[in-house]
Design brief:
The chain is 36% helix and 18% strand. The chain is α+β, with helices and mostly antiparallel strands and 672 residues long. It folds into six domains: 62 residues, Helix Hairpins (Orthogonal Bundle), CATH 1.10.287; 239 residues, D-amino Acid Aminotransferase, Chain A, domain 1 (2-Layer Sandwich), CATH 3.30.470; 76 residues, Nucleic acid-binding proteins (OB fold (Dihydrolipoamide Acetyltransferase, E2P)), CATH 2.40.50; 73 residues, 5' to 3' exonuclease, C-terminal subdomain (DNA polymerase, domain 1, Orthogonal Bundle); 72 residues, Orthogonal Bundle (DNA polymerase, domain 1); 69 residues, BRCT domain (Rossmann fold, 3-Layer(aba) Sandwich). The strands form five sheets. Strands 12, 13, 14, 15, 16 and 17 form a six-stranded antiparallel beta sheet that branches. A hairpin with a 2-residue loop joins strand 13 and strand 14. Helix 16 packs across helix 17. It catalyses: NAD(+) + (deoxyribonucleotide)n-3'-hydroxyl + 5'-phospho-(deoxyribonucleotide)m = (deoxyribonucleotide)n+m + AMP + beta-nicotinamide D-nucleotide. It is an enzyme of class 6 (ligase). It comes from Ohtaekwangia kribbensis. Its cofactor is Mg(2+); Mn(2+).
Length: 672
């Protein structure tokens, strides 16, 4: 393919991807499947890799991330990001309206109302139609430059639509984690034995500051634009919102222009219940004077604008009777207490159950069966018990005694040091753990056996056909036909799906086998670092700690997993079934022999590289990466916070310790 042909195809692919992206995020519709969309994106990435000089600054390929940012630069805001004054009552709102009227000296005015979304404020700067910078609010005067991460958010235009945008302007928006994405994220964390995230807002805030933009892309953040700033961009806030919509920004359609404060109050009342149906959390309404000229006349106090205010909804909490506590057992054996409540209508839904998290919370709240408890939805989405209505407590109620044995298999529960949860250790004999491991194994991010489901797995277990993932590969047509609702065609589809899963790459297989704390990303890092299941199984704790993304907790979990007889047997059976247990990732292409077969140990954190990148660069340039310091080692490549034992050993053996800058000199042919 010639560069001219490649350019034409890149432009066509970019146009198609942007079209489908716009359909999905702006018009809430789709014309192609996720898989078809991903194939278009992969084709574009391949062409850009082959012809890097043709990659455009607004290429959709930037949505998938890939950039590592060690430190986020501080950037001063051109327009300060001031906080708004808050009010919780209609009276205070009317008082504010009176101050606006007085400030405008009797001139007519109107308001513009927008829902206040519970996310992370972001400043987006555009020059010549292209996104050039994304900066967090910070202290309002300066924030962190998180541009690489912001580019991964598909609802934020990399290039604005049309040709009528000014040469330079700024957009303010709220970055958020949609409710369904947050729920899925917590489900995945529970699935690998990690603590759930507390709320969507804090999780979004942490995500925009992640070092690896690829991981940010996986989180599927979204953004609503709510403000336009620049020289002579509009006369009213309403006009600026209309321009943002025309330029391709994602603006929540929930806004409304109001003639007076009475219409504002009507809007607030209306959305108090309707907001529960939105895809994200809201905590109030922002009211702004619509005229930008009038905004300028009203000006600012030291902390906030006089022309805008936030009405905050009170957290919806209700008192209801605690009828009992039940206990759920997850895939990892973690036992979670659940409050069984007298049904009550809260935040748009009828609530019958609420999370109690763990035994510590039950003790802290001093809960008793028969108590009237306060239940909130709030930013956690899942209802939670927040306190006890002591005025309604009866004298005969007894404190809750946390169970000592598994509610399913009656095995005595255990509690690991430093953890709040209790666990059932009966890994091979506790039904929810067994079914949970199979459900984890077949999920889309793991073996992707979509012809299987929770109810089918339950039937297979109850019939004694499947007690572990490896049993799936022994199923026969006769076995499947015993399942309720299965005929010849559906049985064939199920068996074909199981057989096809044998082609699943090792990275996904490693995630599928369900090692505690090993999520999708860590599984990929381990697979690419060690290359095979056997090398992971043989690795020492020290070896495991050298792998990317692996800390003490994960290393201990992986190490213990491969020394468990049941785990060894399961891996052996899966190998016999024909699953992939070696990474097919290609070795780095050789670029030079400048490192002359010299050996390197890499330790610590580096300013410009991830350890994986350094390993690849060393191999590409004729060097070798080894795992331990010895007298035969040529260089210890030392970053920040490297292990003191490695440095001491290197110094004792006379091994040369080099910095990141020294390493770059070696790559240019210099000797040290």
């Amino acid at each position: 393919m010639t560069p001219a042909q490649a350019l034409k195809e890149i432009q066509e692919l970019t146009s198609k991807i942007n079209y489908h992206n716009d359909l999905y995020y702006q018009k809430n519709t789709t014309e192609i499947s996720d898989q078809e969309f991903d194939l278009l994106l992969k084709k574009l990435e391949h062409l850009e890799k082959e012809f890097p000089e043709l990659k455009q600054p607004d290429s959709p390929s930037q949505r998938v991330g890939g950039t590592i940012t060690k430190e986020f630069a501080n950037v001063y805001h051109k327009y300060p990001m001031l906080s708004l004054g808050n009010t919780y009552s209609q009276e205070e709102l009317e008082d504010w309206d009176a101050r606006v009227a007085k400030g405008l000296e009797g001139d007519a005015y109107e308001y513009f109302c927008e829902l206040k979304f519970d996310g992370v404020s972001m400043s987006l700067t555009y020059e010549n139609g292209l996104l050039v910078r994304g900066v967090t609010r910070g202290d309002g005067v300066r924030g962190d430059d998180v541009t690489n991460n912001i580019r991964t958010i598909r609802s934020i235009p990399l290039k604005v639509k049309g040709t009528n945008a000014p040469a330079s302007f700024e957009v303010r928006g709220e970055v958020f984690l949609p409710k369904d994405v947050f729920l899925q994220l917590n489900k995945e964390r529970e699935d690998i034995g990690e603590e759930r995230y507390a709320n969507a807002r804090n999780t979004a805030s942490g995500t925009v500051k992640m070092q690896d933009s690829t991981e940010v892309a996986r989180r599927k953040l979204d953004c609503y634009a709510y403000s336009l700033l620049g020289e002579d961009v509009a006369d009213t806030h309403e006009e600026s919102i209309q321009k943002l919509e025309a330029w391709g920004f994602n603006v929540s359609p929930t806004y409304r222009k109001c003639k007076n404060i009475q219409e504002v109050i009507k809007y607030i009342t209306e959305w108090d219940t309707k907001r529960q149906d939105l895809p994200l959390e809201t905590d109030g309404v922002v009211i702004k004077v619509n005229s930008l000229e009038q905004q300028e006349r009203l000006g600012f106090t030291a902390k906030s604008p006089r022309w805008a205010i936030a009405y905050k909804y009170k957290a919806q909490s209700i008192s209801t009777r605690l009828n009992g506590v039940t206990y759920q057992v997850g895939r990892t054996g973690a036992v979670t207490p659940v409050a069984e409540l007298e049904p009550v209508f809260l935040a748009g839904t009828t609530v019958k159950r609420a999370s109690l998290h763990n035994a510590n919370q039950i003790a802290q709240l001093d809960l008793r069966i028969g108590d009237y408890v306060f239940v909130e939805k709030g930013g956690e989405i899942i209802p939670k018990v927040t306190g006890v209505d002591l005025e309604k407590r009866k004298e005969d109620v007894q404190p809750i005694q946390y169970i000592a044995n598994c509610p399913v298999c009656n095995t005595p529960l255990i509690r690991f040091e430093g953890e709040a949860a209790f666990y059932c250790p009966n890994i091979t004999g506790c039904a929810p753990q067994i079914r949970g491991r199979v459900e984890h194994f077949i999920q889309r991010k793991a073996m992707d056996i979509d012809s299987l489901g929770e109810q089918t797995i339950k039937q297979l277990y109850e019939l004694g056909l499947v007690k572990s993932p490896a049993d799936l590969y022994s199923l026969t047509r006769e076995d499947v036909l015993r399942l309720e609702g299965f005929k010849d065609k559906s049985a064939k589809n199920l068996l074909d799906g199981i057989s096809k899963s044998k082609e699943t790459p090792f990275e996904s297989v490693l995630f599928a086998i369900g090692i505690r704390y090993v999520g999708k990303t860590v599984a990929e890092k381990l697979a690419r670092y060690f290359k095979s299941i056997d090398k992971i199984a043989e690795a020492s704790l020290e070896d495991l700690l050298k792998a990317p993304e692996v800390g003490e907790k994960i290393a201990q979990s992986v190490y213990q997993f491969f020394r468990n007889e049941d785990s060894q047997l399961e891996i052996s059976r899966l190998k016999a079934a024909g699953l992939q247990f070696e990474s097919t990732a290609k070795e780095p292409e050789k670029l030079s022999d400048v490192l002359g077969n010299k050996s390197f140990v890499i330790s610590g954190v580096f300013e410009r590289y991830e350890r994986e990148q350094l390993q690849e660069i060393i191999v590409q340039n004729g060097g070798r990466v080894v795992s331990s310091v010895s007298g035969k080692l040529d260089y210890l490549l030392a970053g920040d916070n490297m292990g003191p034992s490695k440095r001491e050993k290197a110094e004792k053996l006379g091994v040369k310790i080099i910095s990141e800058q020294d390493f770059e000199k070696l790559l240019t042919g210099h000797t040290l």
